[in-house]
Amino acid sequence: MDATLLEKAIAYIRSLFQNRGDGHDVEHTLRVYRNALEIAKSYPKTDLTLVSLGALLHDVDDHKLFQTKNNENARAFLESQDLDQAMIDRVLEIISGVSFSQNKGRVPSSLEGKIVQDADRLDAIGAIGITRAFAYGGKKDRSMEETLRHFDEKLLLLKDLMNTDAAREMAERRHAFMVEFLDELKKERGE
Ligand code: ADP
Ligand code: NI
């Protein structure tokens, strides 16, 4: 793996997310990157450069955050680096494949795409997932009740939607913690 390339990608996402007024945090992307490398340890055939670039760039064209079309931000970054077109296309395919809503549940075709999607989903569950859900709900002025619905509709389903066995295993503890949290919340609310 080219360390300089990854350092440049990290510097790029830091600057991109930092210039946003809403403080959308680069930390999510860095956790996804870490999760992806952790999952990849179980799959020795993984192309680590592909997984790393896919994870680091997976949200740089998120339609909720940026008004770009056709992965413009990711494409511009990748084309500014010394990469061949085949590699650029493979990274862009991963990025397009990660989003659940945009892909209507389609499973990414490459192992690397599956890993990055799982890594992103891991960051939506567990203790981190809980804080992200309530942060999102608060920002959208949603009630606790409405945010709790997101757990039933999506977050509690993610464990069984993991593409890779390694991610499913990593999801177990996070899932159990969410279930425990929801039980405790019910008790404290006198339900
Ligand atoms: P990603 O980084 O995977 O693209 P999203 O942009 O879909 O994630 O969502 C960002 C975070 O906000 C996630 O943790 C997700 O669970 C949470 N979120 C998304 N929609 C809702 C919702 N309707 N209620 C509560 N949380 C939500
Ligand atoms: Ni993400």
Characterise the protein shown here:
With 191 residues, the protein is mainly alpha-helical. It has helices at 3-18, 26-40, 48-56, 72-79, 85-98, 100-103, 111-122, 126-139, 144-153, 158-161, 165-188. It is built from eleven helices and no strands. The relative contact order is 0.11. The model has no long low-confidence stretch (mean pLDDT 93). It binds adenosine-5'-diphosphate and nickel (II) ion. Nickel (II) ion is lined by residues 28, 32, 58-59, 120.
What's the topology here?
Blueprint (H helix, E strand, L loop, with lengths): L2 H16 L7 H15 L7 H9 L15 H8 L5 H14 L1 H4 L7 H12 L3 H14 L4 H10 L4 H4 L3 H24 L3
Helix pairs in contact: 1-3, 2-3, 2-7, 3-5, 3-7, 5-7, 7-11, 8-9, 8-11
This protein binds adenosine-5'-diphosphate and nickel (II) ion.
Strand content: under 5%
| CATH C-level name | Mainly Alpha
The beta-strand count equals 0
The CATH topology label is: Hypothetical protein af1432
State the low-pLDDT regions, or none.
Answer: none
**CATH H-level superfamily:** Hypothetical protein af1432
Overall structural domain count: 1
Radius of gyration: 17 Å
Task: Give the integer mean of the pLDDT values.
Answer: 93
**Approximate helicity band:** 55-70%
What is the general shape? globular
What is the gist of this entry?
By secondary structure, this protein is mostly helical. It contains eleven helices and no strands.
Q: Which features characterize this protein?
A:
single chain; 191 residues; mainly alpha; Hypothetical protein af1432; 11 helices; binds adenosine-5'-diphosphate; binds nickel (II) ion
